[in-house]
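Dear H.,

Thanks for agreeing to be a second pair of eyes. The structure we're designing against is below in token form, covering all 231 positions.
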């Protein structure tokens, strides 16, 4: 059990600190930091704070002797521990979501999913690390790419048929409702692999012009090897 879990007041303080002048507007929002850490603690290989803290805080991290920076780091480390403990206990994590605009009628699931995908990339190429289970992983990650719009973008670029507006809205709403379970399932996917054996490449490294291991039929560089994806 985490001996020092974050309270609502701690989360409010962290949110305030991430917007502090010392970070010059380069720090992640609280929702983005949470999403990134959900991916980081799920990663098949360890991602140390020395890797993810600069991504969360940007150049402001260099002012390490600032009381605000020190406090922010402490709260982020506790948030990381809270998330890791919850996922390990199969308790799921409720996503912190910001409204898209002042009406608060719609929440920014796209930013959350984008930050999760970004955090996953900090461990390297998840598909490559999944080896023969890359197809299973691709299916588990598909909801994230649905939320951040990448699936639709890829379909439009390749001229593939996309869902009707009504069907797309229904699918997105279903993913939004089940996002905590999706995050937990991705964590459990890697936990099962870690329990079976040390995660390592099970297949030769995919060349940029080779068929993508996710089974899309595209070249790796045009699919999972794109810079804006996991690697």
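And this is the sequence the design step returned. I haven't edited it by hand at all.
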């Amino acid at each position: 059990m985490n001996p020092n879990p974050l309270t609502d007041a701690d989360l409010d303080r962290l949110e305030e600190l991430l917007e502090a002048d010392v970070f010059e507007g380069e720090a992640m929002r609280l929702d983005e930091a949470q999403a990134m850490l959900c991916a980081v603690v799920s990663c098949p290989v360890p991602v140390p704070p020395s890797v993810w803290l600069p991504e969360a805080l940007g150049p402001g991290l260099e002012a390490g002797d600032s009381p605000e920076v020190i406090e922010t780091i402490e709260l982020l480390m506790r948030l990381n521990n809270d998330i890791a403990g919850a996922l390990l206990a199969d308790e799921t994590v409720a996503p912190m979501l910001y409204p898209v605009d002042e009406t608060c009628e719609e929440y920014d699931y796209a930013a959350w999913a984008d930050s999760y995908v970004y955090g996953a990339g900090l461990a390297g190429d998840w598909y490559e690390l999944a080896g023969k289970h890359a197809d299973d992983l691709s299916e588990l990650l598909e909801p994230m790419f649905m939320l951040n719009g990448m699936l639709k973008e890829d379909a439009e670029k390749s001229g593939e048929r996309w869902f009707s507006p009504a069907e797309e809205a229904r699918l997105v709403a279903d993913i939004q409702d089940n996002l905590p379970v999706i995050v937990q399932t991705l964590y459990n996917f890697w936990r099962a692999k870690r329990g079976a054996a040390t995660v390592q490449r099970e297949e030769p490294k995919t060349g940029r012009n080779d068929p993508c291991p996710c089974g899309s039929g595209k070249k790796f560089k045009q699919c999972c090897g794109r810079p804006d994806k996991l690697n």
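Two observations from my side: Residues 198-205, 227-231 have pLDDT under 50 and may be disordered. The first helix runs from residue 8 to 18.

Warmly,
E.
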